[in-house]
Amino acid sequence: MLVASEFASSSLDDIKAALAGGTLTFYSVARPVNADHPVDRSGKLAAFTFATPAFATPSEDGSEVPSFVDAAVKAGEVGTPGFARAVTADGKTVADFSVGPGTREIKLAEVSCSPGAPVKVVKFTFNPEGGWPERPDYYDAHPRPGYSLPKVR
Asked: How far apart, in whole angstroms, are the C-alpha atoms of residue 38 and residue 21?
């Protein structure tokens, strides 16, 4: 999870509360360097609206249980989801999440999207460290604007 600077000092519970009534939009790859930058090189694949409250009690495996107005939405474009951006009901960016197979934060029922095909979130976890979970050796070894260079083990 890459948190926008406005929410950087917020607790995880505060972030979950801020998402009530907000949206979670899935984009093709080319995630911005941080959540404060606009999305400009990615196609908008699908968008979910969070219910109020946005999250239920975590499941037994530790993943979150997001509450959406609709359990599935129709994809608007063709593409492979690479990240999702969560915004508040009034349009403030909260965070970007990694999406896809493997150890990503959000898993969908399908690997790719096609126009009109249903999109469904099957798993949602928070990775407060912010990196791409499957490539910490690469992603976390490069400085990001406004952040110090992480130590690579």
From this structure: 21
